[in-house]
Structure formats: C-alpha cells, structure tokens
Design brief:
Pfam families: HD_5. Helices cover 64% and strands 0% of the residues. It is mainly α.
Length: 436
C-alpha cells in the first residue's frame, strides 16, 4: 500500500465517518465506564503482546465480550486504543491504524446491535442457557460479516484484487476462528455478570492465549519455510541470470491456472509454491551450462535435464509443500511420453506438474532471454494451443487462456535485455527454453 489509490483513501474515509457515527447517541450515565476502560486496556495489552511476540491475527474475545456486555455506543470504544497504538511495520502506518480502528469499531457495533436487539443482555445477566447462545451466535455472524465486507472492499480498491475474487472465501475462512473467539467472549461476559466478577472473566483469556501462542508458532514455522523458499529462488536467480524473475512469474501463472480450474485456496497456494520452486534443481547444474549462449550439446542437455531430480531431492523434506514436490520433479514430462526425467504419459503425470508445465512454457515464451526475443502473449497462447494434447494438458492451456483474457499478463523484462545482449529468435516451446 505504498501508493494508496485515491478511491481506497475515500473508502477508508467513509469507514472512519461510519465509525465516528457509531457512538451516537452518546452512552447514558448508566454505562459502566470503568468496564469500557478495563476492556479497552486488556485489548490494547493483547495487541501489544501480539506485536512483541509476533503473533498472527487479532484477539477477538475481548472485543466480543464488550459487544455482549456494553451498549453498542460504548462497545465501539473498546477496540480504539489497541488499534490506534498497534505496531505496524509496513508503509503508511497511520493510515493502516486508522483503517483498522474504523473496521473493528464498525464490526463491534454491528455485533452489539444484533446482540442487544435479540435480548442478549438479559440472557447474559440471567445466565440463561442455552438461549444466550442464540443472540451471541447472531452477533458473531454480524461481526464476521462486517469484517468480511470491509476486508473485501479494501482488497478490491487498495490491492487491486479483481472484484469477483475480492470477497471469495473470506467469510467462510474467518467464521470458524471468530466463532471460537465468540464462545470465549460469551464465557467472559457471563462470568463478568456473575458473582465471580471481572477477575474470573479475565481468567478465560489464559487458555485462549495458550492456543493463540501455539497457533502463532505454526505460522512462525511456516514463515521460516517461506523464507527458505525465497532464499532458494534467489540463489537460482543469481546462478541463472538469464531467467531472473522467471520463478516468481511461473508461480503467478500457476496460481492463475489453479484458480481458473476452481481449486480451493490451500491448493492454489501449493501450486504457487510449485511454480516458484520448479527450477530450484538448477542449483545442482554447472553455471557454465546455464549461461551458455550457444546451442547445447547432447551431453550438456542431459546434464541440464537432471535439474528436476536435483530439485525434488532439495524440497522433498519440506512437508507443507505437499504435491508441489511432484510438480518440481515432473514439470518437464509431456503427455505423449517424450518428456523427462521418466517419460510419463497422460494421466501418469501429476496434475500440479501439468499446471506448472504450461505456466513455465508460457513465461519462457513471453520473456526475453539472451538467445531470443520475447513473443507476444497471443503468439505464446497460440503455440501452447498448438502443442496441447501432445505436450501440454489442454485443460491447463484453456484455463490459462481464460484467466489471461480476464486479468491480463504483464511479464517483467529481464536484466539481460537492458544490458543489450544480442538476441536470436528461437522457438521457446521446442527449442532451448524447454530446459528452463
């Protein structure tokens, strides 16, 4: 969000105005201001702890407890100190803080309004179970829906995510964890109103904090794996300067194909990793062969054709990659059995490998290398369609064609063209680029 579009800033401004209107009319004198202050302090402390220990996500139980305990105009105030004082490492920190404060205020207001409208306050005071679960569940749904609507809007406007994908899966992905946080918030509210008081209510946070910590460790381990992947890709780019940026673009094209095929988000992410890592085995190939300008001898080609096996050996111990490892090994197989390293045919080739094969060839054709100039996207797609059925899976080619027709493609220019290296036209699908 380095350069935030004007329409995104206007969207944030509208959210802020909406949040400022939420405390109106002002809470009455019966509002327990000490409870507002205590909940706001606890939430701010949770946010600071999350930043200090690099936890992932936001701690919603305190916010939802506020929605269950307080009048809507007062509940809106609970997230503000924590959001406005949160640590932000990226650019535009104050814009991000203001946006987060407005987003949480609107979500808490929506949850509190629904909860109070359904008589949730009386149910909490009377510890009326199981009826208390009904307004609490409706409030959780309202909270989740408000976050989803606002998140999708900012993705579409600030991050330029296509509108048809901006909200896809957001609600369902967030509903389960927010529902768990909602149960904890309800327990806090019931204990708070009981004879045990606020101290007992705050004790509910202890097991939640432990589970949060465990979840954060998982994300930290995953981040470490991703850092390892980035380091491997950077090493390949340094060694094979002619294809710098190729891995990232193949990852992007693989993602486009996977989404067009209707794969779920988890599998789309795996396909992205597969595209990024498909050429990691080049680290085991002599640099002089990767940077050779002239034609490869049969012996040299056989050496380079070992890179899928080298790559598979490098990544097979990374458990979360899943079927991406098969794509690293088999992305140079062909449907007619003429590929390598094992000469697999048709359905014997794993689906992720068939996705990456198309993405790899497409980027090779649309990128300028030292030995040939880039082809236009239309020409590259025509070549892929010509080779579909023999070399490439027709489904993958069709999926890429449809995705490009909708979203377009903007390949990066390699550094070699900028240095003025002489280019020689070569067919990327049948020529040397098939090795890369």
């Amino acid at each position: 969000m380095e350069a935030v579009p004007a329409r995104a800033r206007a969207y944030v401004a509208c959210a802020v105005l909406g949040a400022l209107a939420c405390p109106l009319p002002l809470p009455t004198v019966e509002t327990p201001w000490w409870a507002v202050g205590l909940l706001a302090l606890v939430y701010a402390g949770c946010e600071q702890a999350a930043a200090r220990w690099r936890f992932a996500g936001t701690f919603y139980p305190v916010l939802l407890a506020g929605a269950f305990l307080l009048p809507p105009p007062a509940a809106v105030l609970v997230p503000l100190p924590g959001a406005l004082l949160s640590r932000v490492d990226r650019r535009q920190p104050w814009l991000r803080r203001i946006w987060r404060a407005a987003q949480l205020a609107l979500a808490v207001w929506a949850a509190a309004r629904v909860h109070w409208a359904l008589g949730g306050r009386d149910a909490v005071v009377a510890s009326d179970f199981p009826y208390a679960l009904v307004p609490a569940g409706a409030a959780v749904l309202a909270f989740c829906l408000a976050l989803t609507v606002l998140d999708g809007g900012i993705r579409a406007l600030a991050e330029r995510v296509p509108v048809r994908r901006a909200w896809r899966g957001l609600f369902l992905r967030s509903l389960a964890p927010i529902a768990v946080h909602g149960l904890a918030g309800l327990m806090m509210a019931v204990l708070w109103r009981s004879r045990y008081g606020p101290v007992a209510a705050l004790l509910v946070l202890l097991p939640m904090c432990v589970s949060w910590w465990v979840f954060a460790q998982y994300h930290r381990e995953r981040a470490a794996h991703q850092a390892t992947i980035r380091a491997l890709v950077q090493a390949v780019d340094i060694k094979d300067g002619y294809t710098r940026g190729h891995s990232e673009r193949v990852g992007q094209a693989s993602m486009m194909i996977a989404r067009e095929l209707g794969m779920d988000d988890a599998r789309v992410e795996v396909l992205r990793f597969a595209g990024i890592l498909h050429d990691v085995g080049k680290l085991g190939v002599p640099t002089r062969l990767l940077r050779k300008d002239g034609p490869l001898t049969p012996e040299e080609r056989r050496v380079i054709e070992l890179h899928p096996e080298y790559g598979h050996e490098m990544v097979r111990g990374i458990g979360f990659l899943g079927e991406a490892r098969a794509a690293v090994l088999h992305h140079h197989e062909r449907l007619d059995g003429s590929g390598y390293p094992y000469g697999l045919m048709g359905g014997q080739i794993p689906e992720p490998a068939r996705v990456v094969a198309v993405a790899d060839a497409f980027d090779a054709m649309t990128s300028t290398r030292s030995y040939r100039r880039a082809r236009p996207v239309a020409a590259a797609l025509e070549e892929l369609q010509r080779c579909a059925g023999a070399q490439f899976d027709p489904r993958m080619v069709t999926a890429l064609t449809r995705a490009l027709a909708r979203d377009g493609w903007h390949p990066a220019v390699t550094a070699d063209e900028e240095r003025g290296v002489r280019v020689v036209p070569v067919s990327p699908v049948s020529g040397r680029s098939e090795v890369g």
